[in-house]
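User: Please fill in residues for this 123-position structure.
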């Protein structure tokens, strides 16, 4: 199964990024083959709608589960509409999160964990 973890860096030693739409990187992991792929988030510096755009990308990449620190209402709705399981409150190193997920240590999120525009920089 293909899962995606938001990451602050481009390897498995990096920490989970607490933001979904504006995370630095997405780490895609196949829990059956242990293959991983890292993609710099093309939406991280967008003006708006980044949660929706990132959520659509998850659906396009056939992701079944997203693990992140937080998810806003628009991203939550987009992921949910795509049939993607959402797990928030995740922290730690990416490789440890993958192992914990495989052991069934996480529970799905029932709704957004932050308000719209979480993670945007204030000027």
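Assistant: Residues filled in for all 123 positions:
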């Amino acid at each position: 199964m293909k899962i995606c973890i938001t990451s602050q860096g481009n390897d498995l030693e990096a920490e989970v990024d607490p933001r979904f739409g504006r995370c630095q990187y997405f780490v895609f992991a196949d829990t059956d083959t242990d293959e991983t792929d890292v993609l710099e988030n093309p939406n991280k510096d967008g003006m708006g709608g980044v949660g929706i755009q990132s959520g659509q990308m998850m659906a396009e990449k056939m992701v079944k589960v997203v693990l992140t620190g937080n998810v806003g209402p628009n991203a939550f709705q987009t992921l949910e509409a795509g049939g993607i399981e959402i797990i928030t409150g995740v922290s730690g190193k990416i490789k440890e999160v993958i192992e914990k997920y495989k052991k069934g240590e996480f529970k799905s999120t029932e709704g957004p964990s932050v308000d719209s525009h979480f993670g945007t920089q204030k000027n």
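For context: Residues 3 and 74 are 20 Å apart (CA to CA).
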